[in-house]
Amino acid sequence: MKVTEHIANGNGKTQFSFEILPPLKGENIHSIFKNIDPLMEFKPPYINVTYHREEYVFNELPSGLLEKKVVRKRPGTVGICAAIQNKYEVDAVPHILCGGFTKEDTENFLIDIGFLEIDNVMALRGDAVKSETYFTPEKAGHKYACDLVSQINNLNKGKYLDKELQNNAPTNFCVGVAAYPEKHMEAPNMESDLHFLKKKIANGAEYVVTQMFFDNAKYFSFVAKCREAGITVPIIPGIKPISVEKHLNMIPHRFHVDLPEALIKEVIKCKDNSAVRALGIEWSIAQSKELMEAKVPFIHYYSMGKSNNINKIASAVF
Ligand SMILES: Cc1cc2nc3c(=O)[nH]c(=O)nc-3n(C[C@H](O)[C@H](O)[C@H](O)COP(=O)(O)OP(=O)(O)OC[C@H]3O[C@@H](n4cnc5c(N)ncnc54)[C@H](O)[C@@H]3O)c2cc1C
């Protein structure tokens, strides 16, 4: 079922959803199931599975020259989605990127997930590969998520890349896209970022999931700006509980979001990381309760592959 249909079925009640990462190469699917199992009692209608592109590692040769090696540490997004739909009978939402994909790769990925009866896909640009500063698209790939959304929307109309293809079966994907209550790091200002968010929706995206935020006021103000800009689709808030002290620096550095002063002060008071983890849970519970009062359609939890803190939050909230 489509995410938009799940939203309609919620009849105004906030529902639970979460995102998982494929395990590191070498681990098996049971490490994923172990984290999903305890969350199933909160009846997530769908589960997102992130996509991780290749990384470059440089090995020093005896000659002193560097050898570039391409590695993918977390493959398996499509396989995990199929396993989730099979085992739990809930919808799986694979993420797909512009980065590392040619248009042909994109089409083939979409054909695969269509055959698996996956109804939703989250369309993202992806970040620059770790050793580079700026994002570079593949030569025959997409530069921005809005163009990826257009390709998916074309396929939904039966328009494949090969114009001469006969008997084209249209796909029927519901497309989600990302948005940033504190602005995407590369956007020159919020207005510009909203302009391109609007473009993703004009090109066929039907709902939005936000980057994590730790101050609900940022989400509420962002939703108000989107509505003013004429964006009418559901905007699902993304929540991540902090769990270790180093998140104070790692999260702003990696995700370009601020942490509120009150949260920072409490983290600094914590004796150890188990106290930080408990604090992160309490903070996310308070955020979730306020978001529920505001009748958001879903809360999307960033689990980062570990479910026990999400379990405690969901127990207190859902
Ligand atoms: C909910 C969520 C899930 C995510 N999942 C993953 C994942 O699974 N794997 C992963 O690698 N990353 C993931 N990311 C991270 C995401 O890939 C990065 O934040 C990336 O830098 C931007 O992706 P986007 O889809 O928002 O890009 P875009 O919408 O393409 O925007 C990127 C930047 O370009 C600007 N822009 C957009 N369109 C245009 C245009 N036509 N012309 C000029 N400028 C434009 C925007 O304002 C923005 O600054 C996720 C992020 C979120 C919020």
Describe the structure in your own words.
There is one protein chain. This protein is 40% helix and 18% strand. An eight-stranded parallel beta barrel has the order 1-2-5-6-7-8-9-10, surrounded by six helices. A two-stranded antiparallel ribbon has the order 3-4. Helix 10 runs parallel beside helix 11. The protein has eleven helices and ten strands. Helix 6 links the parallel strand 7 and strand 8. The chain is of the alpha/beta class and 318 residues long. The model has no long low-confidence stretch (mean pLDDT 96). Bound molecules: flavin-adenine dinucleotide.
Overall number of strands: 10
Over the alpha carbons, how many angstroms does the gyration radius reach?
20 Å
The secondary-structure class comes to alpha/beta
Order of helices and strands: HEHEEEHEHEHEHEHEHHHEH
Could you list some keywords that capture this structure?
318 residues; alpha/beta; eight-stranded parallel barrel; two-stranded antiparallel sheet; 10 strands; 40% helix; binds flavin-adenine dinucleotide
